[in-house]
Amino acid sequence: MSDQHIQSAFDRDLEQIQANIMKMGGLVESAIRLGAQSLVARDEELAEEVRRGDLAIDALEEQINEDAARVIALRAPTAIDLRLVLSVMKISANLERIGDYAKNIAKRTTVLAQMRPVEDNTVALKRMAREVELMLKDALDAYVHRDADLAEDIIERDRDVDQMYNALFREYLTFMMEDPRNITACMHLHFIAKNIERMGDHATSIAEQVVYLVTGARPDELRPKADSTSTAPPAAS
User: What is the dihedral of CA 34, 22, 193, 50, to 10 degrees?
Assistant: First the structure.
């Protein structure tokens, strides 16, 4: 088999993998948007739709990993091509985690729908989720266009999401101190806020993969975080 034929087969395989990445990304963007909508509207049916949709996201990640492993085994990619395949696998893993966080939000929404509302602070959560959704969309666009500058911009924007989270964290503390009846609901809302903040981290990780893919250099692993409330995310549920 000629080198040209091998490269052509690799390109076809990679095209299919990247098509699945974009499909997966679209599903994850939708999960973020619908998860936030279900929270604001206290819509349990919409929340359940988000939870069911996570199965398709998980299936796509599994397919991408299988296809990528096959490409590595059969096509013997060059160093540059191997970097591309490994980046795709890491991007799909980040997308899967964002999907999990969206599913977690939907779970909490179902619980919160049975509780007394805590003022009207879900609008701030929706705004935060929208910012993360835009970060993810831009990260995927940066990947498609190999745009390292856009990817670097996304990395900087993560600080805005962290600051939104910090403001919400302080707000929930105030609500809990003012009225102990708010404690349980505010704990759920804080969990949701933290999940959205972690979504931003994973969107940023995708952007970092784009920078690595384009330049061959890894962004600073110690990039500053503006989340001043904790150093570890809550356990997924």
Answer: 30
What type of residue sits at position 69? Answer: A
> Nearest-CA neighbor of 95 among 43, 39, 148, 18?
18
C-alpha distances (whole Å) from 93 to each of 52, 81, 162 are: 19, 19, 22
CA 124 to chain centre: 18
Classify residue 226 by burial, with Cβ atoms within 10 Å: 0-12, 13-18, 19+: middle
Note whether 196 and 129 are within 8 A (CB). Answer: yes
Q: pLDDT band at 233, cuts 50/70/90?
A: very low
Cα distances from 23 to residues 16, 57, 105, 140, in angstroms, run 11, 9, 21, 11
pLDDT (tens digit per residue) in 102-151: 999 999 999 998 988 877 678 899 999 999 999 999 999 999 999 999 99
Kindly state the tokens that stand for 40. Answer: 């604001």
Query: What is the C-alpha separation between 151 and 171, in angstroms, rounded?
Result: 31
Residues 70, 76, 78: CA angle, nearest 5 degrees: 125
CA 210, 196, 232 angle in degrees (round to 5)?
85
* Longest CA span, the chain: 74
What pTM does this model have?
0.87
Q: Is the dihedral of CA 171, 126, 104, 157 positive or negative?
A: negative
Q: What's the pLDDT at 10?
A: 76
d(CA 107, CA 31): 13
How many Cβ atoms from other residues are within 10 Å of residue 45's Cβ? 9
